[in-house]
Write a structure and sequence with these properties.
Blueprint lengths: L1 H6 L7 H9 L2 H10 L8 H6 L6 H18 L3 H13 L11 H14 L5 H13 L9 H12 L15 H6 L2 E8 L3 E8 L6 H6 L2 H12 L3 E6 L2 E5 L7
Parallel strand pairs: 2-3
Antiparallel strand pairs: 1-2, 3-4
């Protein structure tokens, strides 16, 4: 798949042009479909493990969150389109290897970017955002931050496969999250969860702490306080504070 994406298409122009050509590339769309193909999941244990979509729907959600975040920061258009492209490619390595998909995705994207006319510094930003999106241990620029944030905030019920909603406690928590949104001001990065009937997804936070840790890292990188709200009520308020 990476060879076809990298070698059969020449991506001309700047960051916006690269994004617009990538999103209509049939091989990229085929890769997104392959990632979410239910035929690749053959037992209930795998359904639980892979209970959330990682293909087109997720890529688009990450792209939207990343764009919103960067727009609120007021960055330039090229930076926004670099993040949008990185969002579309960040999980592409799942077509090769789940456990090391961020590394495989970086290799995959290198093949794609070889056929682009983007300058080296822009290519490097896309590649690094893909490489770092899983843990966010090495945020070096706002493209990294945007893709990490988008990836970890896509945790609403419509991301779950229907057959996976009740298979484990984490999925049951996510099944009660109806909306996640963010606000960026001069002082803070605020994340808002809206849940069904006042539900508090404590298992999600304990079993998958990146849900809170990742936006905290982003807030720290951009020099903002971090606030976390569930149904309008503070859950974490202030970057260095712990919940009671």
């Amino acid at each position: 798949m990476s060879e076809r994406l990298g070698n059969n298409t020449v991506y001309l122009g700047g960051a916006k042009d690269f994004y617009e050509q990538l999103v209509v590339n049939p091989e990229w769309n085929a890769a997104m479909a392959e990632i979410d193909d239910p035929n690749n999941i053959d037992n209930s244990e795998e359904v639980a493990k892979k209970g959330s979509y990682h293909g087109l729907r997720h890529a688009r959600a990450v792209e939207q969150i990343a764009e919103e975040f960067l727009s609120e920061l007021g960055v330039d258009e090229d930076t926004i389109y670099l993040a949008k492209s990185a969002a579309l490619l960040h999980d592409i390595g799942l077509t090769v290897d789940e456990d090391n998909h961020e590394k495989e995705g970086e290799v995959f994207a290198q093949e794609v970017l070889k056929s682009s006319s983007l300058p080296d510094d822009q290519r490097a930003k896309i590649l690094h955002a893909i490489k770092d999106h899983r843990r966010g241990d090495d945020i070096t620029n706002v493209v990294d931050a945007a893709v990490l944030l988008g990836d970890k905030l896509d945790v609403t019920k419509d991301r779950l496969r229907p057959e996976a909603m009740n298979l484990d406690a984490v999925n049951r928590d996510v099944a009660n999250i109806s909306k996640v949104s963010l606000d960026v001001s001069d002082k803070s990065l605020d994340v808002h969860y809206e849940t069904d009937d006042g539900y508090i997804p404590t298992t999600l936070f304990s079993e998958w702490p990146k849900a809170i840790e990742a936006p905290k890292k982003v807030a720290e990188f951009i020099g903002r306080d971090f606030n976390f709200y569930i149904n309008g009520e503070p859950y974490l308020h202030g970057f260095d504070e712990e919940r009671d």
